[in-house]
Specification:
The complex is a heterodimer of chains A (about 50) and B (about 525). Chain A is an all-alpha fold and about 50 residues long. Chain A has helices at about 1-10, 15-45. The longest helix of chain A has about 30 residues, at about 15-45. With about 525 residues, chain B is mainly α. Chain B contains 25 helices and no strands. In chain B, helix 7 (about 125-135) packs across helix 16 (about 315-345). Chain B is globular. The termini of chain B are far apart. Residues about 1-5 and about 295-305 of chain B have low confidence and may be disordered. Classes of the chains: A mainly alpha (about 50), B mainly alpha (about 525). The interface of A and B includes residues 18, 21 and 38 of A.
Chain lengths: ~50, ~525
Amino acid sequence: MGVTMLQSEQQGVNGPVAALAMVQVAITVVAIAVAGRLFAARTRGRRNA
Amino acid sequence: MTTSVSLAPGRATRIRRLLPGTGVQAAISALVLVAVLAPVVPLVYASVQSAPIYQPGRYFTVAAYRQLFTDPAFWRAAGNTAEFAAITTAGALVLGGGFAVVCGRTDVPGRRWYPGLLIAPLVLPPLGLILGWNALYGPGGYAHDFLTQTLHLPFNLSTVPGMAVLGTAVAVPVVFLVCQSALSGMDSSLEDAARSVGAPALRVLGEVTLPMLRPALVNAGLLVFTLSIESLGIPLVFGSPQGHDFIASYLYTQWSSAFTPGPPVVSAGATVLLGCACVLLLLRGTLLRNQARFVTIGGRQGAVGGVPGGVRLPAAARLVLSVLLGLYVAVTTFAPIAALGLSSVTTELTPLIAPWHLFTAGNWRAIGQGAFASSIRNTVEIALAGALITTAVVALATAVAHRSRFPLRRGLPFLLLFPRAIPGLIIGIGFFWTFLLVNPPGHALLDSLWGVMLALSVRSLTIAYFVLSAAFAAVGESLDDAARSAGASWWAAITRITLPILRPALFAAFILMFISILHD
Protein backbone atom coordinates (compact mmCIF):
# COMPACT_ATOMS: atom_id res chain seq x y z
CA MET A 1 0.00 0.00 0.00
CA GLY A 2 2.85 2.39 0.88
CA VAL A 3 4.54 2.11 -2.50
CA THR A 4 1.21 2.41 -4.35
CA MET A 5 0.35 5.55 -2.35
CA LEU A 6 3.73 7.19 -3.00
CA GLN A 7 3.69 6.43 -6.72
CA SER A 8 0.06 7.56 -7.15
CA GLU A 9 0.67 10.73 -5.15
CA GLN A 10 3.60 11.62 -7.40
CA GLN A 11 1.26 11.20 -10.39
CA GLY A 12 -1.25 13.59 -8.79
CA VAL A 13 -3.94 10.98 -8.02
CA ASN A 14 -4.92 12.48 -4.65
CA GLY A 15 -8.46 11.25 -3.90
CA PRO A 16 -7.88 7.48 -4.14
CA VAL A 17 -4.53 7.92 -2.32
CA ALA A 18 -6.36 9.56 0.58
CA ALA A 19 -8.91 6.73 0.60
CA LEU A 20 -6.09 4.16 0.63
CA ALA A 21 -4.45 5.98 3.53
CA MET A 22 -7.76 5.91 5.44
CA VAL A 23 -7.95 2.15 4.84
CA GLN A 24 -4.48 1.86 6.40
CA VAL A 25 -5.61 3.96 9.40
CA ALA A 26 -8.78 1.84 9.74
CA ILE A 27 -6.89 -1.49 9.69
CA THR A 28 -4.46 -0.13 12.32
CA VAL A 29 -7.29 1.04 14.60
CA VAL A 30 -9.07 -2.33 14.24
CA ALA A 31 -5.85 -4.24 15.07
CA ILE A 32 -5.27 -2.12 18.20
CA ALA A 33 -8.93 -2.42 19.25
CA VAL A 34 -8.84 -6.22 18.89
CA ALA A 35 -5.60 -6.41 20.87
CA GLY A 36 -7.03 -4.15 23.56
CA ARG A 37 -10.23 -6.21 23.88
CA LEU A 38 -8.32 -9.49 24.08
CA PHE A 39 -5.98 -8.16 26.76
CA ALA A 40 -8.89 -6.65 28.73
CA ALA A 41 -10.78 -9.97 28.55
CA ARG A 42 -7.68 -11.83 29.76
CA THR A 43 -7.24 -9.41 32.70
CA ARG A 44 -10.92 -9.60 33.71
CA GLY A 45 -10.93 -13.40 33.36
CA ARG A 46 -8.05 -13.72 35.82
CA ARG A 47 -9.46 -11.35 38.42
CA ASN A 48 -10.04 -14.17 40.88
CA ALA A 49 -6.94 -16.18 39.98
CA MET B 1 15.26 -57.48 42.95
CA THR B 2 17.06 -54.29 43.42
CA THR B 3 16.52 -51.29 41.28
CA SER B 4 19.33 -48.88 40.88
CA VAL B 5 18.48 -45.28 40.08
CA SER B 6 21.12 -43.65 38.01
CA LEU B 7 21.51 -40.02 39.09
CA ALA B 8 23.56 -38.95 36.08
CA PRO B 9 22.33 -39.72 32.57
CA GLY B 10 24.46 -42.16 30.59
CA ARG B 11 26.80 -40.96 27.85
CA ALA B 12 24.41 -42.00 25.06
CA THR B 13 21.53 -40.15 26.69
CA ARG B 14 23.72 -37.05 27.19
CA ILE B 15 24.67 -37.02 23.51
CA ARG B 16 21.06 -37.62 22.44
CA ARG B 17 19.87 -34.67 24.53
CA LEU B 18 22.78 -32.41 23.54
CA LEU B 19 22.70 -32.75 19.78
CA PRO B 20 19.06 -31.93 18.91
CA GLY B 21 18.96 -28.89 21.25
CA THR B 22 22.30 -27.53 20.06
CA GLY B 23 21.43 -28.25 16.45
CA VAL B 24 18.16 -26.31 16.71
CA GLN B 25 19.90 -23.44 18.51
CA ALA B 26 22.60 -23.30 15.84
CA ALA B 27 20.01 -23.38 13.06
CA ILE B 28 18.02 -20.53 14.62
CA SER B 29 21.17 -18.45 15.19
CA ALA B 30 22.32 -19.06 11.61
CA LEU B 31 18.88 -18.05 10.28
CA VAL B 32 18.97 -14.77 12.23
CA LEU B 33 22.58 -14.08 11.15
CA VAL B 34 21.78 -14.63 7.46
CA ALA B 35 18.51 -12.64 7.58
CA VAL B 36 20.08 -9.61 9.31
CA LEU B 37 23.31 -9.50 7.28
CA ALA B 38 21.64 -10.39 3.97
CA PRO B 39 20.89 -6.78 3.01
CA VAL B 40 24.19 -5.37 4.30
CA VAL B 41 26.96 -7.54 2.83
CA PRO B 42 25.83 -7.42 -0.85
CA LEU B 43 25.19 -3.69 -0.52
CA VAL B 44 28.75 -2.97 0.60
CA TYR B 45 30.07 -5.35 -2.10
CA ALA B 46 27.97 -3.60 -4.78
CA SER B 47 29.33 -0.21 -3.71
CA VAL B 48 32.94 -1.19 -4.60
CA GLN B 49 32.19 -2.58 -8.06
CA SER B 50 32.62 -0.74 -11.34
CA ALA B 51 29.18 -1.79 -12.62
CA PRO B 52 25.92 -3.25 -11.24
CA ILE B 53 26.31 -6.79 -9.94
CA TYR B 54 24.22 -8.33 -12.73
CA GLN B 55 26.68 -7.07 -15.38
CA PRO B 56 29.73 -9.21 -16.25
CA GLY B 57 33.26 -7.87 -16.50
CA ARG B 58 33.10 -5.61 -13.44
CA TYR B 59 36.08 -5.05 -11.13
CA PHE B 60 36.90 -3.70 -7.68
CA THR B 61 37.03 0.10 -7.53
CA VAL B 62 36.11 3.01 -5.25
CA ALA B 63 34.99 5.11 -8.23
CA ALA B 64 31.39 5.04 -6.98
CA TYR B 65 32.43 6.77 -3.73
CA ARG B 66 34.49 9.29 -5.71
CA GLN B 67 31.48 10.00 -7.95
CA LEU B 68 29.24 10.35 -4.90
CA PHE B 69 31.51 12.76 -2.99
CA THR B 70 32.11 14.96 -6.06
CA ASP B 71 28.40 15.28 -6.86
CA PRO B 72 27.15 18.71 -5.68
CA ALA B 73 23.59 17.34 -5.52
CA PHE B 74 24.72 14.80 -2.89
CA TRP B 75 26.25 17.55 -0.70
CA ARG B 76 23.12 19.69 -1.07
CA ALA B 77 21.03 16.68 -0.01
CA ALA B 78 23.41 15.99 2.90
CA GLY B 79 23.16 19.63 4.02
CA ASN B 80 19.36 19.56 3.82
CA THR B 81 19.28 16.28 5.75
CA ALA B 82 21.56 17.63 8.51
CA GLU B 83 19.50 20.83 8.81
CA PHE B 84 16.23 18.87 8.90
CA ALA B 85 17.57 16.40 11.50
CA ALA B 86 18.97 19.18 13.71
CA ILE B 87 15.76 21.26 13.73
CA THR B 88 13.58 18.16 14.21
CA THR B 89 15.71 16.91 17.10
CA ALA B 90 15.76 20.29 18.86
CA GLY B 91 12.01 20.80 18.42
CA ALA B 92 11.14 17.25 19.49
CA LEU B 93 13.34 17.49 22.61
CA VAL B 94 11.78 20.79 23.72
CA LEU B 95 8.19 19.71 23.06
CA GLY B 96 8.49 16.02 23.97
CA GLY B 97 10.46 16.68 27.14
CA GLY B 98 8.17 19.56 28.10
CA PHE B 99 5.03 17.47 27.58
CA ALA B 100 6.49 14.60 29.61
CA VAL B 101 7.26 16.95 32.52
CA VAL B 102 3.84 18.64 32.32
CA CYS B 103 1.90 15.34 32.17
CA GLY B 104 4.10 13.48 34.66
CA ARG B 105 5.08 16.09 37.20
CA THR B 106 2.28 18.69 37.38
CA ASP B 107 -1.44 18.75 38.18
CA VAL B 108 -2.53 19.86 34.70
CA PRO B 109 -6.16 18.80 33.93
CA GLY B 110 -6.29 15.91 31.45
CA ARG B 111 -2.84 14.62 32.37
CA ARG B 112 -4.22 11.06 32.35
CA TRP B 113 -5.60 11.36 28.80
CA TYR B 114 -2.96 13.40 27.03
CA PRO B 115 -0.18 10.74 27.09
CA GLY B 116 -2.33 8.36 25.02
CA LEU B 117 -3.18 11.13 22.56
CA LEU B 118 0.41 12.39 22.35
CA ILE B 119 1.73 9.00 21.20
CA ALA B 120 -0.97 8.64 18.52
CA PRO B 121 1.45 9.65 15.68
CA LEU B 122 3.51 6.53 16.53
CA VAL B 123 0.53 4.28 15.96
CA LEU B 124 -0.92 5.97 12.89
CA PRO B 125 0.55 5.17 9.45
CA PRO B 126 3.39 7.67 8.82
CA LEU B 127 2.42 8.11 5.17
CA GLY B 128 -1.20 8.75 6.18
CA LEU B 129 -0.05 11.50 8.55
CA ILE B 130 2.22 13.02 5.86
CA LEU B 131 -0.61 13.03 3.29
CA GLY B 132 -2.96 14.51 5.90
CA TRP B 133 -0.51 17.33 6.58
CA ASN B 134 -0.21 17.87 2.82
CA ALA B 135 -4.00 18.06 2.47
CA LEU B 136 -4.29 20.55 5.35
CA TYR B 137 -1.06 22.57 5.54
CA GLY B 138 0.61 21.86 2.19
CA PRO B 139 1.02 24.51 -0.53
CA GLY B 140 -2.53 23.89 -1.81
CA GLY B 141 -3.86 22.75 1.54
CA TYR B 142 -7.19 23.57 3.13
CA ALA B 143 -5.70 25.57 6.01
CA HIS B 144 -2.65 26.94 4.19
CA ASP B 145 -4.18 30.35 3.40
CA PHE B 146 -5.53 30.63 6.96
CA LEU B 147 -2.02 30.08 8.33
CA THR B 148 -0.15 32.38 5.95
CA GLN B 149 -2.67 35.19 5.39
CA THR B 150 -4.89 35.28 8.46
CA LEU B 151 -2.33 34.26 11.08
CA HIS B 152 0.59 35.70 9.04
CA LEU B 153 2.79 32.68 9.81
CA PRO B 154 5.68 32.28 7.31
CA PHE B 155 4.93 28.58 6.98
CA ASN B 156 5.89 26.59 3.89
CA LEU B 157 5.93 22.78 4.09
CA SER B 158 8.10 22.58 0.96
CA THR B 159 11.11 24.22 2.63
CA VAL B 160 13.50 22.39 4.95
CA PRO B 161 12.32 24.22 8.12
CA GLY B 162 8.71 23.57 7.08
CA MET B 163 9.42 19.85 6.65
CA ALA B 164 11.18 19.93 10.02
CA VAL B 165 7.94 21.11 11.65
CA LEU B 166 6.23 17.95 10.37
CA GLY B 167 9.30 15.90 11.36
CA THR B 168 9.04 17.34 14.87
CA ALA B 169 5.37 16.40 15.13
CA VAL B 170 6.26 12.81 14.15
CA ALA B 171 9.27 12.64 16.52
CA VAL B 172 7.68 14.20 19.64
CA PRO B 173 6.03 10.88 20.69
CA VAL B 174 9.44 9.13 20.72
CA VAL B 175 10.96 11.77 23.03
CA PHE B 176 7.78 11.83 25.13
CA LEU B 177 7.88 8.05 25.70
CA VAL B 178 11.57 8.02 26.64
CA CYS B 179 11.20 10.97 29.05
CA GLN B 180 7.95 9.65 30.51
CA SER B 181 9.63 6.31 31.23
CA ALA B 182 12.58 8.09 32.86
CA LEU B 183 10.32 10.32 34.98
CA SER B 184 8.19 7.42 36.21
CA GLY B 185 11.30 5.69 37.56
CA MET B 186 12.64 8.84 39.18
CA ASP B 187 12.46 9.42 42.92
CA SER B 188 10.48 12.60 43.49
CA SER B 189 11.92 13.39 46.93
CA LEU B 190 14.47 15.79 45.45
CA GLU B 191 11.64 17.88 43.99
CA ASP B 192 9.72 17.63 47.26
CA ALA B 193 12.81 18.88 49.11
CA ALA B 194 13.11 21.86 46.76
CA ARG B 195 9.44 22.76 47.23
CA SER B 196 9.71 22.38 50.98
CA VAL B 197 12.33 25.17 51.12
CA GLY B 198 10.03 27.48 49.16
CA ALA B 199 11.16 27.09 45.55
CA PRO B 200 8.41 28.12 43.10
CA ALA B 201 6.99 25.50 40.75
CA LEU B 202 8.81 26.71 37.61
CA ARG B 203 12.13 26.80 39.42
CA VAL B 204 11.67 23.23 40.68
CA LEU B 205 10.86 22.02 37.17
CA GLY B 206 13.71 23.96 35.58
CA GLU B 207 16.49 23.39 38.13
CA VAL B 208 15.65 19.95 39.55
CA THR B 209 13.43 17.94 37.16
CA LEU B 210 14.95 18.91 33.83
CA PRO B 211 18.60 18.30 34.84
CA MET B 212 17.58 14.85 36.11
CA LEU B 213 16.11 14.20 32.67
CA ARG B 214 19.39 14.95 30.89
CA PRO B 215 20.35 11.30 30.19
CA ALA B 216 16.87 10.55 28.83
CA LEU B 217 16.99 13.68 26.65
CA VAL B 218 20.42 12.74 25.24
CA ASN B 219 19.17 9.19 24.58
CA ALA B 220 15.99 10.40 22.88
CA GLY B 221 17.84 13.11 20.96
CA LEU B 222 20.29 10.67 19.40
CA LEU B 223 17.47 8.28 18.52
CA VAL B 224 15.41 11.04 16.86
CA PHE B 225 18.47 12.35 14.97
CA THR B 226 19.19 8.84 13.65
CA LEU B 227 15.57 8.34 12.57
CA SER B 228 15.50 11.79 10.95
CA ILE B 229 18.52 11.31 8.69
CA GLU B 230 16.85 8.30 7.05
CA SER B 231 13.52 10.10 6.43
CA LEU B 232 12.14 9.30 2.96
CA GLY B 233 8.38 9.97 2.90
CA ILE B 234 8.57 13.63 3.97
CA PRO B 235 11.16 14.77 1.36
CA LEU B 236 9.53 12.69 -1.40
CA VAL B 237 6.11 14.29 -0.89
CA PHE B 238 7.19 17.87 -0.04
CA GLY B 239 10.86 18.48 -0.77
CA SER B 240 11.81 16.72 -4.01
CA PRO B 241 9.26 18.50 -6.23
CA GLN B 242 10.84 21.81 -5.10
CA GLY B 243 14.42 20.56 -5.41
CA HIS B 244 14.99 20.11 -1.67
CA ASP B 245 16.30 16.55 -1.63
CA PHE B 246 17.40 14.65 1.45
CA ILE B 247 19.94 11.82 1.26
CA ALA B 248 17.26 9.11 1.21
CA SER B 249 15.18 10.84 -1.51
CA TYR B 250 18.39 11.63 -3.46
CA LEU B 251 19.26 7.90 -3.45
CA TYR B 252 15.66 6.93 -4.30
CA THR B 253 15.63 9.34 -7.27
CA GLN B 254 19.07 8.18 -8.48
CA TRP B 255 17.91 4.55 -8.25
CA SER B 256 14.62 5.02 -10.08
CA SER B 257 15.88 7.40 -12.79
CA ALA B 258 19.25 5.77 -13.58
CA PHE B 259 19.88 4.65 -17.16
CA THR B 260 21.14 1.25 -15.96
CA PRO B 261 19.20 0.02 -12.91
CA GLY B 262 21.14 -0.16 -9.64
CA PRO B 263 24.16 2.07 -10.30
CA PRO B 264 27.05 1.55 -7.83
CA VAL B 265 26.82 5.21 -6.74
CA VAL B 266 23.45 4.43 -5.09
CA SER B 267 24.99 1.48 -3.21
CA ALA B 268 27.86 3.76 -2.16
CA GLY B 269 25.43 6.40 -0.87
CA ALA B 270 23.41 3.73 0.92
CA THR B 271 26.58 2.40 2.59
CA VAL B 272 27.52 5.92 3.75
CA LEU B 273 24.01 6.41 5.21
CA LEU B 274 24.18 3.01 6.91
CA GLY B 275 27.60 3.87 8.36
CA CYS B 276 26.30 7.16 9.81
CA ALA B 277 23.29 5.41 11.37
CA CYS B 278 25.52 2.71 12.92
CA VAL B 279 27.94 5.30 14.38
CA LEU B 280 25.05 7.26 15.91
CA LEU B 281 23.53 4.16 17.46
CA LEU B 282 26.91 2.98 18.80
CA LEU B 283 27.37 6.42 20.37
CA ARG B 284 23.90 6.15 21.89
CA GLY B 285 24.72 2.68 23.22
CA THR B 286 27.92 3.97 24.83
CA LEU B 287 26.15 6.92 26.44
CA LEU B 288 23.35 4.66 27.73
CA ARG B 289 25.91 2.44 29.49
CA ASN B 290 27.36 5.53 31.22
CA GLN B 291 23.98 6.80 32.37
CA ALA B 292 23.78 3.99 34.93
CA ARG B 293 25.83 6.31 37.15
CA PHE B 294 23.16 8.99 36.93
CA VAL B 295 20.96 7.70 39.74
CA THR B 296 18.73 9.80 41.96
CA ILE B 297 19.48 9.34 45.61
CA GLY B 298 16.29 9.46 47.59
CA GLY B 299 14.54 8.12 50.58
CA ARG B 300 10.96 6.99 50.57
CA GLN B 301 8.72 7.14 47.52
CA GLY B 302 6.84 10.37 46.71
CA ALA B 303 3.56 11.30 48.36
CA VAL B 304 0.55 9.06 47.80
CA GLY B 305 -2.58 10.83 46.60
CA GLY B 306 -2.85 14.42 45.45
CA VAL B 307 -0.03 14.99 43.00
CA PRO B 308 2.48 12.22 43.70
CA GLY B 309 5.90 13.78 43.33
CA GLY B 310 4.45 16.68 41.34
CA VAL B 311 4.23 20.45 41.51
CA ARG B 312 0.98 22.33 41.95
CA LEU B 313 0.61 25.08 39.37
CA PRO B 314 -1.52 28.23 39.66
CA ALA B 315 -5.06 27.71 38.29
CA ALA B 316 -4.52 29.98 35.27
CA ALA B 317 -1.29 28.17 34.33
CA ARG B 318 -3.02 24.77 34.61
CA LEU B 319 -5.81 25.87 32.30
CA VAL B 320 -3.49 27.44 29.74
CA LEU B 321 -1.21 24.39 29.65
CA SER B 322 -4.15 22.02 29.29
CA VAL B 323 -5.60 24.06 26.42
CA LEU B 324 -2.19 24.26 24.71
CA LEU B 325 -1.76 20.49 24.96
CA GLY B 326 -5.21 19.93 23.49
CA LEU B 327 -4.54 22.39 20.66
CA TYR B 328 -1.21 20.75 19.91
CA VAL B 329 -2.76 17.28 19.66
CA ALA B 330 -5.63 18.58 17.53
CA VAL B 331 -3.45 20.60 15.15
CA THR B 332 -0.67 18.04 14.63
CA THR B 333 -2.61 14.75 14.61
CA PHE B 334 -6.38 14.83 14.50
CA ALA B 335 -6.90 17.74 12.11
CA PRO B 336 -4.58 16.23 9.46
CA ILE B 337 -6.31 12.83 9.76
CA ALA B 338 -9.70 14.57 9.46
CA ALA B 339 -8.42 16.42 6.38
CA LEU B 340 -7.24 13.10 4.96
CA GLY B 341 -10.69 11.63 5.53
CA LEU B 342 -12.32 14.64 3.90
CA SER B 343 -9.94 14.33 0.90
CA SER B 344 -11.05 10.75 0.46
CA VAL B 345 -14.73 11.70 0.05
CA THR B 346 -14.37 14.86 -2.06
CA THR B 347 -13.24 15.40 -5.63
CA GLU B 348 -10.94 18.14 -4.35
CA LEU B 349 -10.29 19.63 -0.92
CA THR B 350 -10.05 23.40 -1.40
CA PRO B 351 -10.95 26.39 0.82
CA LEU B 352 -12.57 28.07 -2.22
CA ILE B 353 -15.53 25.66 -2.34
CA ALA B 354 -17.39 24.16 0.64
CA PRO B 355 -16.48 20.44 0.89
CA TRP B 356 -20.12 19.27 0.95
CA HIS B 357 -20.58 20.53 -2.64
CA LEU B 358 -17.79 18.20 -3.78
CA PHE B 359 -18.72 14.95 -2.03
CA THR B 360 -18.07 11.83 -4.10
CA ALA B 361 -17.84 8.09 -3.57
CA GLY B 362 -15.64 7.77 -6.65
CA ASN B 363 -12.38 7.63 -4.69
CA TRP B 364 -13.56 4.71 -2.54
CA ARG B 365 -14.94 2.95 -5.63
CA ALA B 366 -11.54 3.40 -7.32
CA ILE B 367 -9.62 1.67 -4.54
CA GLY B 368 -11.99 -1.29 -4.67
CA GLN B 369 -10.55 -2.46 -7.98
CA GLY B 370 -7.35 -2.75 -9.99
CA ALA B 371 -3.93 -2.00 -8.55
CA PHE B 372 -5.33 -0.33 -5.44
CA ALA B 373 -7.40 -3.35 -4.38
CA SER B 374 -4.55 -5.78 -5.01
CA SER B 375 -2.17 -3.54 -3.02
CA ILE B 376 -4.52 -3.71 0.00
CA ARG B 377 -4.80 -7.49 -0.32
CA ASN B 378 -1.04 -7.93 -0.73
CA THR B 379 -0.21 -5.69 2.20
CA VAL B 380 -2.60 -7.43 4.59
CA GLU B 381 -1.35 -10.88 3.48
CA ILE B 382 2.29 -9.86 3.83
CA ALA B 383 1.67 -8.23 7.22
CA LEU B 384 -0.19 -11.26 8.62
CA ALA B 385 2.25 -13.89 7.32
CA GLY B 386 5.33 -11.78 8.07
CA ALA B 387 4.23 -10.97 11.61
CA LEU B 388 3.39 -14.63 12.35
CA ILE B 389 6.63 -16.08 11.00
CA THR B 390 8.88 -13.35 12.41
CA THR B 391 7.30 -13.50 15.88
CA ALA B 392 7.93 -17.26 15.95
CA VAL B 393 11.54 -16.93 14.77
CA VAL B 394 12.34 -14.00 17.09
CA ALA B 395 10.73 -15.85 20.05
CA LEU B 396 13.00 -18.85 19.44
CA ALA B 397 16.03 -16.60 18.84
CA THR B 398 15.34 -14.73 22.11
CA ALA B 399 15.10 -18.08 23.87
CA VAL B 400 18.48 -19.09 22.43
CA ALA B 401 20.01 -15.71 23.38
CA HIS B 402 18.71 -15.58 26.96
CA ARG B 403 17.75 -19.15 27.90
CA SER B 404 20.37 -21.47 26.48
CA ARG B 405 24.02 -22.43 26.78
CA PHE B 406 24.70 -22.06 23.07
CA PRO B 407 28.32 -20.83 22.77
CA LEU B 408 27.53 -18.00 20.31
CA ARG B 409 24.39 -16.79 22.04
CA ARG B 410 25.90 -13.47 23.19
CA GLY B 411 26.05 -12.19 19.62
CA LEU B 412 22.32 -12.74 19.05
CA PRO B 413 21.01 -9.63 20.93
CA PHE B 414 23.29 -7.41 18.83
CA LEU B 415 22.09 -9.11 15.62
CA LEU B 416 18.43 -8.75 16.66
CA LEU B 417 18.90 -5.03 17.44
CA PHE B 418 20.97 -4.28 14.31
CA PRO B 419 18.09 -3.92 11.81
CA ARG B 420 16.98 -0.85 13.78
CA ALA B 421 20.20 0.83 12.60
CA ILE B 422 19.50 0.07 8.93
CA PRO B 423 17.41 2.72 7.16
CA GLY B 424 14.40 1.25 5.34
CA LEU B 425 15.64 2.32 1.91
CA ILE B 426 18.94 0.48 2.51
CA ILE B 427 17.15 -2.74 3.42
CA GLY B 428 15.23 -2.55 0.15
CA ILE B 429 18.36 -1.94 -1.96
CA GLY B 430 20.36 -4.53 0.00
CA PHE B 431 17.79 -7.29 -0.41
CA PHE B 432 17.53 -6.47 -4.13
CA TRP B 433 21.22 -7.26 -4.52
CA THR B 434 20.91 -10.36 -2.32
CA PHE B 435 18.09 -11.77 -4.43
CA LEU B 436 20.16 -11.14 -7.58
CA LEU B 437 23.33 -12.70 -6.16
CA VAL B 438 21.82 -15.73 -4.44
CA ASN B 439 19.90 -17.59 -7.11
CA PRO B 440 18.07 -19.89 -6.52
CA PRO B 441 15.95 -18.83 -4.68
CA GLY B 442 16.76 -15.16 -5.30
CA HIS B 443 14.97 -14.59 -8.60
CA ALA B 444 11.84 -16.38 -7.39
CA LEU B 445 11.78 -14.18 -4.28
CA LEU B 446 12.37 -11.05 -6.37
CA ASP B 447 9.25 -11.81 -8.43
CA SER B 448 6.96 -12.72 -5.53
CA LEU B 449 5.43 -11.29 -2.37
CA TRP B 450 7.71 -13.54 -0.27
CA GLY B 451 10.70 -11.35 -1.11
CA VAL B 452 8.85 -8.21 0.02
CA MET B 453 7.68 -10.03 3.14
CA LEU B 454 11.24 -11.07 3.98
CA ALA B 455 12.59 -7.52 3.61
CA LEU B 456 9.78 -5.93 5.65
CA SER B 457 10.00 -8.61 8.34
CA VAL B 458 13.75 -8.10 8.80
CA ARG B 459 13.21 -4.32 8.99
CA SER B 460 10.69 -4.70 11.85
CA LEU B 461 12.05 -7.67 13.81
CA THR B 462 13.73 -5.44 16.40
CA ILE B 463 10.26 -4.44 17.64
CA ALA B 464 9.42 -8.09 18.37
CA TYR B 465 12.77 -8.51 20.13
CA PHE B 466 12.13 -5.49 22.42
CA VAL B 467 8.81 -6.96 23.56
CA LEU B 468 9.94 -10.57 23.88
CA SER B 469 13.27 -9.91 25.62
CA ALA B 470 11.47 -7.91 28.31
CA ALA B 471 8.90 -10.71 28.66
CA PHE B 472 11.57 -13.43 28.92
CA ALA B 473 13.31 -11.40 31.64
CA ALA B 474 10.07 -11.44 33.67
CA VAL B 475 9.80 -15.25 33.61
CA GLY B 476 12.11 -16.94 36.07
CA GLU B 477 14.64 -19.50 34.85
CA SER B 478 13.57 -21.86 37.62
CA LEU B 479 10.69 -23.07 35.46
CA ASP B 480 13.11 -24.05 32.68
CA ASP B 481 15.42 -25.69 35.21
CA ALA B 482 12.54 -27.68 36.72
CA ALA B 483 11.57 -28.94 33.27
CA ARG B 484 15.18 -29.84 32.43
CA SER B 485 15.63 -31.65 35.72
CA ALA B 486 12.57 -33.77 34.89
CA GLY B 487 14.28 -34.85 31.67
CA ALA B 488 12.87 -32.40 29.16
CA SER B 489 15.11 -31.25 26.31
CA TRP B 490 15.83 -27.54 25.76
CA TRP B 491 13.30 -27.50 22.88
CA ALA B 492 10.59 -29.15 25.02
CA ALA B 493 11.21 -26.79 27.96
CA ILE B 494 10.99 -23.70 25.76
CA THR B 495 8.05 -24.72 23.59
CA ARG B 496 5.96 -26.47 26.25
CA ILE B 497 6.74 -24.42 29.37
CA THR B 498 8.18 -20.96 28.68
CA LEU B 499 6.52 -19.88 25.44
CA PRO B 500 2.96 -20.82 26.57
CA ILE B 501 3.47 -18.60 29.64
CA LEU B 502 4.56 -15.80 27.30
CA ARG B 503 1.43 -15.98 25.12
CA PRO B 504 0.36 -12.36 25.92
CA ALA B 505 3.83 -11.08 24.97
CA LEU B 506 3.84 -13.19 21.80
CA PHE B 507 0.48 -11.73 20.85
CA ALA B 508 1.66 -8.17 21.62
CA ALA B 509 4.76 -8.75 19.48
CA PHE B 510 2.58 -10.15 16.67
CA ILE B 511 0.25 -7.11 16.72
CA LEU B 512 3.15 -4.60 16.80
CA MET B 513 4.90 -6.44 13.93
CA PHE B 514 1.63 -6.56 11.95
CA ILE B 515 1.14 -2.79 12.37
CA SER B 516 4.78 -2.02 11.55
CA ILE B 517 4.77 -4.10 8.34
CA LEU B 518 1.37 -2.67 7.39
CA HIS B 519 2.74 0.86 7.66
CA ASP B 520 5.88 0.24 5.61
